[in-house]
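Changelog-adjacent note: as of this version, every example in the card shows the full chain rather than a window. The one below runs 374 residues end to end.
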Amino acid sequence: MARTLYVTEPLLPNLTELQELLEQIWQTKILTNGGPLHQKLERELQKRVGVPTVKLFNNGTIALIVALKVVDLPLGSEVITTPLTFAATAHAISWNGLMPIFVDVSPGTLTIDPASVERAITERTSAILAVHVYGTVCDVEALKCIADRHNLRLIYDAAHAFGVTVNGESIAAFGDVSVFSFHATKLFNTLEGGLIATPRNDDGEAIENLRNFGIKNEEEVVCVGINGKLNEVQAAVGLLNLPRVDGERERRALLRAKYDEMMGLLPGIALQKKQPGVVNSEQYYRIVVDAEVFGRSRNDLYDALKDRGIFARKYFHPICTDFVPYKGWPIYTTRSSPYVDIVKTQVLCLPFHSGVTDEDVAEIRDVFWTGRSV
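Full-length structure tokens:
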């Protein structure tokens, strides 16, 4: 049977080690509600993420919904975000009874464009929800200046940014709150999961109440909460995967270097640029294809790879403003037309994980170099 290669491959623990932790769970008969493995993983992640408050969740979407609730925004107010993101980013805003306002992205980084953010601000704006995409970091200093100047809350969707540091500082130290995804497709996974992290000590109780139905103790429900708890099996997988993350990142960094060497010779292929002072999460390897210069479109390459059993991803395409709930909504920009509407047809993520072999890289190279003399 021919090999099938996907854009991501989950990091999985050793089955024997997992069996040992499962036996502990069976002995304690504690399956959820903040069991011992959950508590241990939360402590380990607090050390890894490097901010005072970290709280585990059953998935990143629920964590994002709760994060917006934590910052206590006025009902119906506007939250500025990017359309070049997973649908859950916009949905979390809408689920909170808030209005997502979409703005353009910056060429090069494809993160939210600060100048477009500034242009979209009105008297109804209450927050900015920025997204670190593909492991590329937003312009955190520019966004902080804007948020401070207009008295806005600043939230980061850091689903792609686990382990990222900026000049030695954790990515979670920026803004009011950051949300990580531990979905199976992410660098670090708990099968399905998420994390809220904040740079303040006093956020823990509020987040704890919100993720557990608003229950403070056996006799008090203090707020309208949700069920966001991570179970013990997920925590067990997380505890075993966490020590393996650094090794996986190192292998992906080597793969990035191979891809860069190969793609850097091709006209019309823009690579993900290294940001000074930033340690990348190595979450995705994305390129931008200029069909006029390269001679083939992103879709041509996607189909040619797929014909060989190599499943790249048009990530993100469609964008949020192409989806039914937000279709036709404006995208604020400082340009004559939004750059994001162009780049959504050009962006492609290649298979990027330690399961990608040199033979796979050669196969991908053959697709890109077909008909070229370089």
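Structural remarks: The chain has two domains: 15-242, 244-369.
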